[in-house]
C-alpha cells in the first residue's frame, strides 16, 4: 500500500496548547501509512525536540529567514540581491500594525495582505494538507499548497467580524473540512460562518495519559523548598489568558494572609507588564514567572491547585493535563470550560473576575475534606482520549 503524503502547517512549536496538541497527534500517527511534512513559520520552538523522528520539518520559508534579520542586515541583503520586495513588505507590515491597535486576527490579515506575494508556493502535491491553527497557516495552506484534500483546524473560540470575516471567508471556502477542538469551538465558529455547518466536525485535542504520567516523573519541577500551597498556571503571557485577573486574585490572597506561591509557566508579550505589576504590588515572593519548560508535568504533579484565568479557550489543554495528574482545578467560565469540568467534582468553575477566582482558591485551601473529595474524583475520572486519533484517521482516508 502506498503511503499518503501529509502536510501539517502551524506558526511554530513554542510551548502552547495547539502546539502541544499537534506534537501529541504526531507522536501517535502510524508512520507505516503516512509520510509527514511539517511547515513552520518560526523555527527553534521548545516542542521541536519532542517531534517523532519520522516527521520531516521543511526548511524555513525565504521570507521567514529574511524577517529574522535586523533591519540593517535586511537592507544590506536587499542591496546585495538588487531586490527590495521583501524589505518593502516587511516595512509596510510593521508600519501598519504600529499605526493601529489590531487584534491577532487583524494582524494575521495585515501580514498576509502585505507579505503573501513574497511567500513561495510549496513545490509538492500532497494527499492531505492541514492548517493546524487559524490565521496565517490557514491562508498559507489555502493559497500556497497543492493537495487533494485540505483540512483547517480551529483551536480557539474564533469570532470574526467586519474586514476579518470577509477576508477569511475566501480562504475557508477552499477547505474540504473544518475541525473544531470542542463542541463550543465549533458552535462559536459557526456563529460567524453558519454556511460551513455541513463541512465542520469536532476532534478534541488528543491527550496521552501514559505519556503525561511518565513525563511527570522525569525532572525535578519546583526547586525552592516552599512548604505552603503551590498554585500553578500554564499559558502564554497574553491578554487571552486573563493574567490581569490572576494578578488581582494573587494580591487578594496575599492581603488575606494565605501562605501560598502562584507559579506561571509561559512567556509572551505581557511579560514586562506582569513583572512591573508584581514589583509595584510587592508580590515578588508570591507570583513567580518560571518561563517556558519543555516538560511542565513535574510542576503540575507537585502543585496543590491548578488555576486557569482564561477569557477564552478552544478547549483548555492544560486543564486536561492537570486533571490527568489529579490536581484540583479552579478555572474561569470561558466558553468551552464545561467540555471537561464538572462543577464541585473535579474543581471549581468561577466567574471571570479576580474576587471569584480568589474565593475559589481559598475554598479549596480551607476546605480539606472537599479538596480530598475532588482529588479522589480525579483519580477515578476517565484519563485521556486516545480514541480521538480514530476520528483523525477517518478524516484523512
Automatic annotation (TrEMBL):
Keyword Transferase attributed: yes
Keywords: Transferase
UniProt-listed SUPFAM superfamilies: UDP-Glycosyltransferase/glycogen phosphorylase (SSF53756)
Any Pfam family hit: Glycos_transf_1
Single Gene Ontology MF annotation: glycosyltransferase activity
InterPro entries xrefs: Glyco_trans_1
Record's keyword annotation contains Lipoprotein: no
Domain (Glycosyl transferase family) ranges: 231-378
Superkingdom of the source species: Bacteria
PANTHER family found in the cross-reference section: GLYCOSYLTRANSFERASE
Protein name: Glycosyltransferase
Amino acid at each position: 500500500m502506498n503511503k499518503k503524503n501529509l502536510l501539517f502547517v502551524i506558526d511554530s512549536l513554542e510551548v502552547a496548547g495547539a502546539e502541544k496538541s499537534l506534537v501529541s497527534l504526531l507522536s501517535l500517527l502510524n508512520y507505516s501509512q503516512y509520510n509527514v511534512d511539517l511547515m513552520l513559520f518560526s523555527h527553534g520552538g521548545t516542542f521541536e525536540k519532542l517531534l517523532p523522528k519520522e516527521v520531516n520539518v521543511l526548511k524555513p520559508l525565504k521570507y521567514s529567514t529574511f524577517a529574522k534579520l535586523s533591519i540593517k542586515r535586511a537592507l544590506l541583503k536587499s542591496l546585495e540581491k538588487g531586490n527590495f520586495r521583501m524589505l518593502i513588505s516587511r516595512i509596510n507590515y510593521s508600519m501598519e500594525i504600529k499605526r493601529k491597535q489590531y487584534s491577532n486576527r487583524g494582524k494575521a490579515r495585515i501580514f498576509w495582505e502585505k507579505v503573501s506575494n513574497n511567500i513561495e508556493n510549496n513545490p509538492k502535491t500532497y494527499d492531505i494538507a492541514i492548517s493546524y491553527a487559524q490565521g496565517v497557516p490557514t491562508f498559507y495552506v489555502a493559497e500556497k499548497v497543492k493537495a487533494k484534500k485540505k483540512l483547517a483546524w480551529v483551536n480557539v473560540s474564533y469570532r470574526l467580524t467586519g474586514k476579518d470575516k470577509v477576508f477569511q471567508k475566501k480562504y475557508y471556502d477552499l477547505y474540504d473540512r473544518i475541525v473544531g477542538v470542542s463542541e463550543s469551538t465549533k458552535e462559536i465558529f459557526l456563529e460567524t460562518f453558519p454556511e460551513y455547518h455541513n463541512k465542520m466536525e469536532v476532534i478534541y485535542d488528543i491527550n496521552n495519559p501514559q505519556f503525561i504520567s511518565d513525563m511527570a516523573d522525569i525532572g525535578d519541577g519546583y526547586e525552592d523548598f516552599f512548604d505552603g500551597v503551590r498554585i500553578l498556571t500554564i499559558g502564554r503571557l497574553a491578554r487571552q489568558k486573563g493574567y490581569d485577573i490572576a494578578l488581582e486574585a494573587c494580591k487578594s490572597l496575599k492581603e488575606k494572609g494565605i501562605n501560598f506561591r502562584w507559579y506561571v509557566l509561559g512567556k509572551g508579550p505581557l511579560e514586562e507588564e506582569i513583572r512591573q505589576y508584581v514589583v509595584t504590588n510587592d508580590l515578588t515572593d508570591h507570583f513567580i514567572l518560571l518561563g517556558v519548560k519543555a516538560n511542565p508535568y513535574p510542576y503540575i504533579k507537585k502543585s496543590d491547585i491548578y488555576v486557569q484565568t482564561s477569557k477564552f479557550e478552544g478547549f483548555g489543554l492544560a486543564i486536561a493535563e492537570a486533571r490527568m495528574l489529579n490536581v484540583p482545578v479552579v478555572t474561569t467560565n470561558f466558553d468551552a470550560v464545561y467540555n471537561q469540568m464538572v462543577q464541585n467534582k473535579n474543581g471549581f468553575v468561577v466567574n471571570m473576575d479576580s474576587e471569584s477566582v480568589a474565593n475559589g482558591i481559598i475554598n479549596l485551601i480551607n476546605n480539606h475534606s472537599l479538596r480530598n473529595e475532588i482529588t479522589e474524583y480525579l483519580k477515578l475520572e476517565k484519563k485521556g482520549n486516545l480514541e480521538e486519533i480514530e476520528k483523525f484517521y477517518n478524516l484523512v482516508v
